[in-house]
């Protein structure tokens, strides 16, 4: 089973993608999409990515909810920061965070979260020391930001991936 | 596209609100590109359009064509997913190159790399 389906989740995701692009659930498209999903998963084997297993599906839903709420909140915060930029100088700065995540896919997800949230930009991650540097647009308290990233995003990602 | 006038009012109102909201947010993000003073600050502005702007405008489009064609339209979900997946790549490239240049030029307001390592010889940093 593992031989034929090296990345079952990836194959499934590709099938979903194919059906979404074609906007149809006809048997022909399902077959074509499944074949594509399986073949592309074999190609993925040759790229030798890090194997990760998703462990905790409940946490994924919670994390997704948190991220959605944070995106809304930070959108509003950044908008008001931009609109007030003329009157009040924006207090932006760098924040360095010690992170114990090492899984590549988890780091990639963290990067997507931090980038999709306006107001925080992922700048640099040092693999040896595990120090992540982000830039925060409206910085009031650097320590609070690093706590926020660590508790709100890193901890659930750890539960999911490691 | 020519049937847009067939859109019933009860759909047109939320669609308009979503479209206006989304485009306003994207506009504010673009204004931010002019208003913010530092490069790193400007890095944040376009993410407004990439997150809330895309989601709102895509939702509006989804509702419109779902009602007009009387079926579920899910293409826009893919747009949202791909935009969210791909923006980090560009942003990180821009951010890293700015950091690299600022460090070479020895600007004081940029944090050094920790532990006295050679700057970025591996090219392996994410």
Write the layout of secondary structure elements.
The complex is a heterodimer of chains A (162) and B (126).
Chain A lengths: L7 H15 L4 H21 L9 H27 L9 E6 L5 H13 L3 E7 L4 E6 L5 H20 L1
Antiparallel strand pairs in A: 1-3, 2-3
Helix pairs in contact in A: 1-2, 3-5, 4-5
Chain B lengths: L8 H27 L3 H4 L2 H25 L5 H31 L21
What does the model show?
The complex is a heterodimer of chains A (162) and B (126). With 162 residues, chain A is mostly helical. Chain A has five helices and three strands. In chain A, strand 2 and strand 3 (131-136) form a beta hairpin. Chain A is elongated, with a radius of gyration of 20 Å. The model of chain A has no long low-confidence stretch (mean pLDDT 83). Chain B is mainly alpha-helical and 126 residues long. In chain B, 69% of the residues lie in helices and 0% in strands. Chain B has four helices and no strands. Chain B has helices at residues 9-35, 39-42, 45-69, 75-105. In chain B, helix 1 (9-35) runs antiparallel to helix 3 and helix 3 runs antiparallel to helix 4 (75-105). The longest helix of chain B is centred in the C-terminal third of the chain and has 31 residues, at 75-105. The N and C termini of chain B lie far apart (43 Å). The model of chain B is unreliable at 115-119 and 121-126 (pLDDT under 50). The chains are: A mainly alpha (162), B mainly alpha (126). The A-B interface holds A 17, 20-21, 23, 71-72, 75, 78-79, 82-83, 85-86, 89-90, 92, 94, 96, 104, 107-108, 111-112, 114-129, 131, 133, 135, 137 and B 25, 28-29, 31-32, 35-38, 40-41, 43-45, 47-48, 50-52, 73-75, 77-78, 84-85, 87-88, 91-92, 95-96, 99, 110-111, 113-115, 117, 124-126.
